[in-house]
Amino acid sequence: MSDFVLRDVRLVPLRGDPAPAEPVDVRVADGHVTEVGPSLAVGGAEVRAEGRWLVPGLWDQHVHLGQWALASLRLDLTGTRSVEEALARVSTRLAELPDVPIVGWGHRSAGWDRQPTVRELDEVSGIRPVVLISGDGHHAWINTVALRGLRLPERDGVVSESEWFKVYPRLAEVVGADGTSPDAYLHTMQQAAAKGVTGLVDLEFDQGVRDWPEREAAGAELLRVRVGAYVDTLDDFLRAGVPTGASLPGCGPLVTMGPLKVISDGSLNTRTAWCCSEYSRGGGTGAPNITSEGLRNVMEAGNRHHLEVAIHAIGDAAVEQALKEFEATGARGSIEHAQLISREDSRTMARLGVRASVQPAHLLDDRDLTESFWPDRTDRCFALRWLHDDGVELALGSDAPVSPLDPWLAIAAAVHRSADDRDPWHPEQSLTPAEALGASTDGRGTVAPGHPADLALLDADPLAPGSSLEQATALRSMHVAATWVAGSLVHSEL
Ligand SMILES: [Zn+2]
Questions:
Q1: 3-state class of 98 per DSSP?
Q2: Ligand 1 center to residue 135 CA distance, Å?
Q3: End of a domain among 127, 158, 175?
Q4: Is the pLDDT at 207 greater than 90, yes or no?
Q5: Do 269 and 133 fall within a single domain?
Q6: If pLDDT is split at 50, 70 and 90, which confidence band does 137 have?
Q7: pLDDT over 80 at 107, yes or no
Q8: pLDDT for res 319
Q9: Mean pLDDT over the full length of the chain
Q10: I need a surface site. Which of 275, 317, 376, 386 has the fewest CB within 10 A?
Q11: Judgement on whether residues 49 and 114 belong to the same structural domain of the protein
Q12: Contacts of 433 by beta carbon, 8 Å cutoff, 6+ apart
């Protein structure tokens, strides 16, 4: 943690808070913003922002961090045009993460001018297991250490077709289950920090109350993390006796107790999201995963132990059920996803003060599926405009690895509801850039004295005018020059 003055920043006006028209200086002391104004007196270090834009640090309110660490650790080999190019990416990764085996994916060597050899992969990788899976999944380029680990005959060419298919399920034996080491978590959080993220809600399954303290002690300490508990490990968390918002025992100040998570219905994909009316072509209505009584018990337990609840509800029947129990128990917390709602649900959420934790990037992926499964109700999907206008607190997230841990992608999807050259999907439900960004700052508006010094410094104005397409394109490629958590620099390209 350090004290400094950030010189010459433009404050981005958010959540209805005013912002000065001209660039100002921002003083950070003891992990907080203490002063904002023109030409602040010198004192401590200075950071020259040169007119860049300053926003509160971004939050991803729904992440499965272990799964995301695992997925994002796969070395991306798509687009490589030669053996040399693929080897260069392997070398870079080896230098970045010296203790983690490498699983790569996505090369298309059929188009290369020559085929890869094990000898040259050995030369760059040495004793570290490396398995590079081709983009079509039909072969793997495996180094000698990994070949031995997989009990395959040594060779100089790739392992392909049935020999490869047989060995694939045993991959974990050499590369470990484990992109989930503290190192992998730290690397993943560094990537998030580079996008301006300062906090996230980790809703990974099967988390024990000791997981984060151990991880943090081993060096995975960078961003604010709220740790969610599920009913199966709830007793351990209850024994630890921490209310939502308190530091998790054994952790530093950044890692705190999050909500109690319940999965109350299924998903659109599998047609298990619980709806008030049938899916198309007699597909049934989906079904609840939990009875109203079960849900009520969980919410009452949450109340007793001062825990917020996070209720996964995708279909409108599940949303309705959750809201009924929020009302009956007075529980505090959020509905996760709220993918299909009625206007009445939106108003009820506002009245009860239930947060909507939504993942706008999913609408890009689910657009076509929704048109085929729910053709009669597409106007009520990802109804961000209703929620915003009715006064519901919106909290954007990714549900990574379902969509990438990238708040700019979520913000852009909320602004322009299309990922291709089609017109936006139900643009009447879109948000403005200011609204979407304001839903990504964990409730904080324009940077002001008293805020924690969780800050992101942007190279461009996130609220620059333009068509929704122009705005979304700019938002998706937003460059973050620096990120601070509690006054500590966690990412810098200044
Ligand atoms: Zn999730």
A1: coil
A2: 27
A3: 175
A4: no
A5: no
A6: confident
A7: yes
A8: 98
A9: 93
A10: 376
A11: no
A12: 411, 415, 462, 463, 471, 475
Q: What pLDDT score was predicted for residue 85? A: 96
Are both 192 and 163 inside the same structural domain? no
Compute the distance from residue 398 Cα to the ligand 1 centre, in Å.
8
Q: What does the pLDDT look like over 309-359, one tens digit per residue? A: 999 999 999 999 999 999 999 999 999 999 999 999 999 999 999 999 999
- 209 plus 171 within the same structural domain: no
- For residue 289, report the distance from its CA to the centre of ligand 1, in Å: 15
Same-domain status, 460 and 354: no
Same domain for 286 and 330, yes or no, is yes
pLDDT tens per residue, range 356-369: 999 999 999 899 99
Number of domains in the chain: 3
Residue 427 and residue 486 share a domain: no
Indicate the pTM of the whole model: 0.85
Query: Which three-class secondary structure state does DSSP give residue 459?
Result: coil
pLDDT > 90? residue 273: yes
Question: Given this model, what pLDDT does residue 1 score?
Answer: 56
379: domain CATH number?
Answer: 3.20.20.140
Cβ neighbours for 405, distance < 8 A, ≥ 6 positions apart = 60, 63, 68, 72, 188, 191, 192, 195, 197, 200, 398
CA–centroid distance, 443 to ligand 1, in Å, is 21
Domain boundary among 143, 175, 207: 175
Of 56-70, 79-93, 163-177, 383-397, the least confident:
163-177
**In angstroms, what is the span from residue 62 Cα to ligand 1's centroid?**
6
The answer on 319 and 351 residing in a single domain is yes
DSSP 113-125: SS---HHHHHHHH
What is the SS3 string spanning 172-206?
A: HHHHCCCCCCHHHHHHHHHHHHCCCEEEEEECCCC
Q: Where are the alpha helices (DSSP H) in 353-406?
A: 361-373, 384-390
- What's the CA-to-centroid distance between 275 and ligand 1, angstroms? 19
> Which CATH number do you get for residue 109?
3.10.310.70
* Cβ contact 225:248 at 8 Å: no
Span from the CA of 63 to the centroid of ligand 1 (angstroms): 6
Distance (Å) from CA 356 to ligand 1 centroid: 14
CA of 15 to the centre of ligand 1 (A): 26
Ligand 1 mean position, distance from CA 228 (Å): 11
pLDDT band at 461 (very low <50, low <70, confident <90, very high): very high
Q: What CATH number does the domain containing 2 carry?
A: 2.30.40.10
Share of the chain above pLDDT 70, in %: 99
Distance 203 CA to ligand 1 centre (A): 6
Q: How far is the CA of 414 from the centre of ligand 1 (A)?
A: 19
| Domain limits for position 125 | 67-175
Which structure tokens are listed for 391?
């006064």
Distance 369 CA to ligand 1 centre (A): 19
